[in-house]
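Retro notes, item 3 of 5
We never archived the inputs for the adenosine monophosphate complex last cycle. Fixing that now. Sequence and ligand:
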Amino acid sequence: MKILVAVKRVIDYNVKVRVKADQSDVDLANVKMALNPFCEIAVEEAVRLKEQGIAEEVVVVSIGPKAVQEQLRTALALGADRAIQVETEDMPDSLAVAKLLKGVVEKEQPNLVILGKQAIDSDNNQTGQMLGALTGMPQGTFASKVDMADGSVNVTREVDGGLQTVKLSLPAIVTTDLRLNEPRYASLPNIMKAKRKPLDVTSADELGVSISRTVKLLKVESPAERSAGVKVADVAELVDKLKNEAKVL
Ligand code: AMP
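Structure as it came back at the time:
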């Protein structure tokens, strides 16, 4: 069984995001970038399936400029066997990513495609679903458990107020939720080994996919500053403040 994992380069989740002065985008100059946390979970799940002898090969793919190779190397250090970069000038929007991933799926013919449920930069939460629509493959989104069976996969999904388990025939698409697993750290020897693992670069043209931008980013704004809260000693003080300061009672 072959597993394809899509990974995205995003701003590290520890970084305080700054908006460019002209509000045209988020400022990425000298900012630490990382593998999207949900994609780390996706890689971990694929590597565990390989360690259990269920998968033979784990291929990671990232779409974007040359810099995404850094995150592909991280995924290789976490245990993926081989990497593919689909080179684009800038970071394409979700529909373009899904079209390019469809091209990679057609070429690689994986039995399972794992994506993060969302990228923490734009919180789109749509690429896996779009890939499902474009390929006609069944999808199990927001997975908190993945159980492989013969020719199918049972995916337990985190839905509002509970869990839902669906059975998908392979090939299928899974998107990962936070509780699916706890990703490992890459060890130094594995980081060194990852440098020698294969990383192929391809393009939209080579995949026979034509992409155009269908979403235009108009403006980015920081959240409004909020004033600090206060602690009250007791209910009487709270009621007094609500009445006399906030004037909402
Ligand atoms: P999104 O729909 O943008 O929130 O992203 C959901 C998931 O789609 C991510 O966690 C990745 O697995 C995948 N994805 C999004 N953008 C890319 C990209 N440029 N390259 C590879 N995978 C991507």
